[in-house]
Amino acid sequence: MLDTRAKFSTALYWVFVWGCGLLVLAFMIGPILLALVMSFNSGSTLRFPPEGFSLRWYEMLFDPIASGPIHTAAKNSIEVALSTVALVTLITAPAAWALARAPKRFSGSVEPILLAPLVLPSLVYALAALLALSLLGLGPSFIAVLIGHAAVFAPLMFRTVLGLAQRQNPALEEASETLGASRIRTFLRISLPGILPGIFAGAFLVFMQSLDNVSVTLFLGDPGRTMLPLRLFAMLEESLDGRVAAVSGVLILAAAILLVVLQRFGARDAR
Amino acid sequence: MIRKDTLLSWPMIAFMVLFFISPLLLLAGISLRGEDGSWGLGNFAAFLSDPFALGVLTGTLGLGAKVTAFASLAALPLVMLYWHSGKRMRSVILICTLLPMLTANVVRTFAWVVLLGRNGPISQTIFGLGLSDRPFSLLFSETGLIIALVQIELPLLLLPVFAVLNRADRKTLEAAEVLGAGRWRAWFSAIFPQIIPAVLAGWVLVFASATTSYVTQSVIGGARLIYLPQYVYREVGVLFQWPMAAAISILLLASTGVIMLCLTMLARHERLQGHA
Is A32–B5 a contact, with Cβ atoms under 8 angstroms apart? Predict the structure, then answer.
């Protein structure tokens, strides 16, 4: 009697673990697959199940006349994203490298400031930044979005670089300098290669987040220059045609590439 | 005074203080400014005494709590599956967790618009099975919003737990089983305590991001369901009520901040640390 109960409980355990576990796994990945499937839909409405296979939405998306506004928005967004990555790399990589070597007391007291944007809602920051701008008598602009994105997303790269810099052995740099290499040569040959994967992984993360961000872009962006996330957001709320699915397909592909980059460069700390 | 070896970190520190911290301090400052130019807690008092606004605040915190609760329920079997899986299955689970997280928020929201709509698979399946007498839409309902947010935020809870499980000690589970504990009991007494700090850390992230996910809330929740982010946006974008919007933002920060602080302190609690 007791034995059957124990067996039943064990069976239930495996049913729960595998049954419910796989169900949750499907729940997580399902919507992404659905968005992909819908992007190849040949029907004119976003009905499920899709009516047939076609590339018409991709053709329409890449058509410069039919989708001009989307192209302009994408171009503007990519410009901002690339500039953000450049700015973030410039200030973040040296900081993370230096803090990995700084005394614990110093880095311990500075890191919370540098990581704060990760836990603060970006909407609140966007509001604060717009307020600061207007008090300075400035309006929304390209520079404003750029600085806003850099401030919010810099911690992403800071973490990926810091993780690698902390694992680097400072003795290597000392050895290089003792052997007569200049400071610059040591940096280029020893320090930089060690943290480069972190910079690369961080750059991808920052780029994707900058492309995706709505609130900072919405508040700080020049209303005359449409940005991709805002354009998509508007399409979601209004028209919802098949091109949203096609853009989704492109962005999912970008996410898959990002995933490979993160795996490849072993940025396991880049949660 | 600046030490030479920290020199390279100062540009970033200066940048963050100047462009991140100071706008927030400014926001906190302006929230104390009354309509008549006086300074005080008037905006906070006005917000908290307005039943509608208070409803929005409790609704937002409630949404965060519900999403966190359902995400935890959904996470449990998957976390257990991850624990029992071999290397290959673990990387499959990891990819299925990371890919949605790295996909743009707009894309995930779009997928849910299709899924939850009247012509979507959920409605069609339930209608097709005869469980409902007509197709229905879960869009613009809190239920739909919670389902979508759980899927969107779930990776934030799973990843810290997976990281702990990668390092977790298999021997404790074996010991528990040798000592005669059943499967369930062995898992909950040997492995579960080890992941509690990671779960609390994940809760912080899920809660903070569910309460402030402006895009998902407005697209899936629709115009009738108002949460704090939309409320703030309305105060600024439509009514130009800067001090009030600032006060609401500070309240949003403070309420999520207090919850985060409690969870963080709980995670650092000695007895929990002992298990970790």
Answer: no
Q: Are A205 and A213 in contact, with CB atoms under 8 Å apart?
A: no
- Coil vs helix vs strand at A231: helix
Min Cα separation A214/chain B (Å): 7
Q: Which sign does the torsion angle of CA B105, B107, B109, B112 carry?
A: negative
- With the C-alpha atoms ordered B175, B177, B183, B186, is the resulting torsion angle positive or negative? negative
Q: Which 3 state secondary structure label does DSSP give B33?
A: strand
Q: How many C-beta atoms lie closer than 10 Å to residue A23's C-beta?
A: 13
Q: Rounded CA gap, A31 and A24, in Å?
A: 12
Q: For residue range B173-231, list pLDDT tens digits in order.
A: 778 777 877 888 888 888 888 888 889 888 988 998 898 888 899 889 888 889 988 89
Residues of A in contact with B13 (CB under 8 A): 95, 110, 113-114
Beta carbons of A114 and A136 less than 8 angstroms apart: no
**How far lies B86's CA from each of A142, B89, B90, B91, in Å?**
49, 6, 6, 9
DSSP class of residue A135? H
Q: Which residues contact B260 (CB under 8 A, 6 or more apart)?
A: A119, B204, B207, B208
Cα of B217 to nearest chain A Cα, Å: 12
Please give the distance of CA A270 from its chain centroid, rounded to a whole number.
Answer: 11
**Least Cα separation, residue A205 to chain B (angstroms):** 8
CA dist., res. A201 & res. A261, Å (int): 6
Q: Rounded to an integer, what distance in angstroms lies between the CA atom of residue A154 and that of residue A166?
A: 18
Enter the DSSP assignment of A103.
-
* pLDDT averaged over every residue in chain B: 86
Q: What backbone torsions phi and psi does residue B129 show, to the nearest 5 degrees?
A: -80, -5
DSSP class per residue in B130-185? TSSSS----TTSHHHHHHHHHHHHHHHHHHHHHHHHHH--HHHHHHHHHTT--HHH
In chain A, how long is the greatest CA-to-CA distance? 80
CA angle, residues B17, B239, B64, in degrees to nearest 5? 65
Contact criterion met (CB < 8 Å) for B9 and A31? no
Distance CA A107, CA A170 (A): 16
Q: Which residues of A83-119 are buried (b: 16+ CB within 10 A; e: fewer)?
A: bbbebbbebbbbbbbbbbbbeeeebeebbeebbbbeb
pLDDT in the model for residue B271: 58
Does the pTM exceed 0.95? no
Identify residue B65 by its one-letter amino acid code: A
- Please indicate whether, in this complex, the C-beta atoms of B109 and A236 are within 8 angstroms of each other: yes
Residue of A nearest to B148 (CA): A31
Phi/psi of residue A251, nearest 5 degrees: -70, -30
